[in-house]
Amino acid sequence: MWPDRRLLDLLGIELPIIQAPMAGATDAAMSVAVSESGGLGSLPCALLTAERARAEIGVIRQHTNRPLNVNFFCHSMPDPDPAREKIWRSRFDPYCAELGLDPSSTAPAPGRAPFNDEMCDLVEELAPEVVSFHFGLPEPRLLGRVKRLGCKVLSSATTVDEARWLADHGCDAVIAQGYEAGGHRGMFLTDAVDPQPGTMALVPQVVDAIGVPVVAAGGIADGRGIAAAFALGAAGVQIGTAYLLASESTISGLHRAALATARDDGTVQTNVFTGRPARGLINRVVREIGPMSPDAPAFPTAGGVMAAIRAAAEAAGSSEFSPLWSGQAASLSRPGSALELTRALAADALERLGTLAPRH
Amino acid sequence: MWPDRRLLDLLGIELPIIQAPMAGATDAAMSVAVSESGGLGSLPCALLTAERARAEIGVIRQHTNRPLNVNFFCHSMPDPDPAREKIWRSRFDPYCAELGLDPSSTAPAPGRAPFNDEMCDLVEELAPEVVSFHFGLPEPRLLGRVKRLGCKVLSSATTVDEARWLADHGCDAVIAQGYEAGGHRGMFLTDAVDPQPGTMALVPQVVDAIGVPVVAAGGIADGRGIAAAFALGAAGVQIGTAYLLASESTISGLHRAALATARDDGTVQTNVFTGRPARGLINRVVREIGPMSPDAPAFPTAGGVMAAIRAAAEAAGSSEFSPLWSGQAASLSRPGSALELTRALAADALERLGTLAPRH
To answer: What phi and psi values does residue A198 have, to the nearest 5 degrees?
Structure first.
């Protein structure tokens, strides 16, 4: 039925659609809905404690026995850099003054801990069928533990170089994350944002470079994009932004409202929220401090300084200081449940594929 | 045979492939080869005098009676800005010193005149079947003359806004130029490069927004990309970089050699060569002066200061000061004649489309 079954067979799923793990935006309910639909539900753990992750996975396992993807970041934690922090903090003093906030009230950034022994223990205990990583792969010792469990391992490549590296280091499939994608870019062998290739160019070049199945990501939000991904040689897709508008998404009403009127040219890559480039809708702080600021402290520490400003703005109904993660195709998304969305995406893709065959 | 015949019927061609007009890189020979293959050959006139354009079109008409696309830029010429020119010139003094050149020897930029009455007279005289524009459309009076001849009119959109504008102002088809595309971006309602959407995101959003056929461009260099474009709802493709490696291309040996080893992440948008953003391979002048310099004088005047430096570098076998236009998928291109290339692209696309239909 699907033109390429490699990803379906590898992951034990029925529909070649992976729900992108989006930290802070989805929880167990989304994973359950997508896995029950036949796609691959994902639980983003980057912002969770091991205890919280255990609880979420427990909920998921109660509601579905279908394959689950558990996702972790695997960055290196930076050394503190007080001088840089101070410069960065001063950039936000005018906003504190404007909003009547004490500049010293800013909180530490949300704890984005990289995949570690504690999380690896959790993986061993709960044995998710799929473990995906962002920002490369964890150290060989930890990766070896995951691989020995039989979990299928995925990670994202933003260039052909990164795809080769991931395939060489044991990934069972590689997500080719094009420039269009929302949220954090998975880049780990380069920090140059400007040369990053778009999905249309990246996917076939990655397909030619590696032997494992390629999952296309970036700018895909409807059946046409899924059909196009197969045309380019991908064996499946990872979709993020379209799921942000699903009813199970836990994003704020402000974020949801901004996505509902998003334009094709309404996003940029910005490092102002975390220190790493991530695509989101353009708002005031992105315009005025970013989009890519050389002053931003290293990931994940940049965001702390903005916490109080963001809270005050959101309390006043403004999303001008909130990270409004979005890819470039938000306007193609439709609200509804994640289960309905996944099934509609798959049905539309199959219908689209059926219209493409040459008629003789 | 093709899943969408709208572009074929509109332009009177057999294969839904438009050879991108690339000023300075192709002449009559390329247009003849592509039109004879069944695609749409294009003659870029942006760097030609009316006299030279007349001669080239004469050669084309001698060798083929198939449809021809004649392409023009339609920017506004900027007022001279000596202060900015002086600052810009000073940026290149170190290179002049390094290469032993007199900084005052720099030449004016190549004359890129916008579409004007003289060129419009030529169009009336020679009646090309298709006239395409870059940077929007010419003033209504000139556009009206072209439309009254019955020429089909095309132009490039880099956003949904631009696509709507072009469709509303009389374009018979709109080229959706994604971020991946090489050479000058056609942007004309915005000058913001960072939010420009990639092909995968742009094409379906443009298809949804306008009623005329959409031609996909950017990152498409083989049959997979063409099949993907149809999946996204396009009625055809415009391909540039792949034709730069064809035997009829008039690019330098240095440019050809650089393209032959191009990487997926080896290009950026840069304004250092002309003052407008254009995608090319990263070389020394792009790295050191650009990629996007706020000092660059307005298009098309920025390049003059570099002429002597470029000539001296090229004479010494270096392309570090040459514009090496390229999209993000150069590595997918294969050398050969433009006729063979066009036929192979079409055959590969049809074969690819045939593999995508769901098998029940």
So the answer is: -75, 165
Q: Which residues does chain B have within 8 Å of residue A178's beta carbon, measured at their own beta carbons?
A: 198, 200
Residues 329 through 348 of chain B touching chain A, CB cutoff 8 Å: 329, 331-332
| A88 and A42 assigned to the same domain | no
Q: Could you say which residues from 168 to 227 on chain A have a Cβ atom under 8 Å away from some Cβ of chain B?
A: 178-180, 190, 192, 194-202, 204-205, 208, 218-220, 222, 224-225, 227
Best of A159, A180, A189, A200 to substitute, by most chain B Cβ atoms within 10 angstroms, is: A200
B1 lies in some domain: no
Q: Is the pLDDT of residue B344 over 90?
A: yes
Q: What is the DSSP string of A116-170?
A: -HHHHHHHHHH--SEEEEESS---HHHHHHHHHTT-EEEEEESSHHHHHHHHHTT
**pLDDT (average), residues B88-96:** 95
Q: Which domain holds residue B189?
A: 6-75+112-259+330-356
Domain check: are A52 and A11 in the same one? yes
Is residue A314 in some structural domain? yes
CA atoms within 13 A on the CB side of B78: 16
Give the lowest-confidence range in A334-338, B34-38, B226-230. A334-338
Q: Do B241 and B350 fall within a single domain? A: yes
Q: Among A3, A225, A265, whose Cβ lies nearest the Cβ of B200?
A: A225
Burial class (CB in 10 A: 0-12, 13-18, 19+), A336: middle
Q: What are the tokens at A294?
A: 């050389």
Q: What is the pLDDT of residues A180-197, one digit of tens each?
A: 999 999 999 999 999 999
The C-alpha of A251 sits at a distance from chain B's nearest C-alpha, in angstroms, of 22
Q: How far apart are CA B236 and CA B19, in angstroms?
A: 11
Tell me whether residues B265 and A159 touch, CB distance under 8 A.
yes
| Predicted local distance difference test score (pLDDT) of residue A357 | 84
Comparing CA positions, the residue from B284, B229, B290, B213 lying closest to residue B254 is: B284
Tokens of A198: 């778009």
Residues of chain A in contact with residue B192, where contact means CB-CB under 8 angstroms, are 265
Nearest to A199 among B200, B222, B358 (CB): B200
Q: Considering the domain boundaries, does residue B222 fall inside one? A: yes
Residue B50: which CATH number? 3.20.20.70
Tally the domains of chain A: 2
Shared domain check, A139 and A10: yes
Residues of A in contact with B200 (CB under 8 A): 178, 180, 198-200, 218-220, 225, 228, 329
Q: Check whether residue A126 and residue A161 sit in a common domain.
A: yes
Rg (CA), chain A: 20
A108 pLDDT band, cuts 50/70/90, is: low
Query: A188: number of CA atoms within 13 Å, CB side?
Result: 20
Looking at residue A125, what is its pLDDT? 96
pLDDT for B177-228, tens place per residue?
A: 999 999 999 999 999 999 999 999 999 999 999 999 999 999 999 999 999 9
Query: Quick check: A281 contacting B, CB < 8 Å?
Result: no
Structure confidence at residue A345 as a pLDDT band (50, 70, 90): very high
For the segment A242-282, what is each residue's pLDDT rounded down to a tens digit? Answer: 999 999 999 999 999 999 999 999 999 999 999 999 999 99
A353 with B202: Cβ contact below 8 A: no
- pLDDT of B246 over the 70 cut: yes
DSSP reduced 3-state for A152:
strand
In a domain, A256, yes or no: no
pLDDT digits (tens, 9 = 90+) for A148-175: 999 999 999 999 999 999 999 999 999 9
Question: Would you put residue A304 in left (φ > 0), alpha (ψ -120 to 50) or beta?
Answer: alpha
| Consecutive H or E run containing B157 | strand B152-157
Buried/exposed code over B330-339 (b: 16+ C-beta within 10 A; e: otherwise): bbbbeeeebb
User: What is the residue type of A165?
Assistant: W
Are residues A272 and A296 in contact, defined by beta-carbon separation less than 8 angstroms? yes
Residue type, A221: A
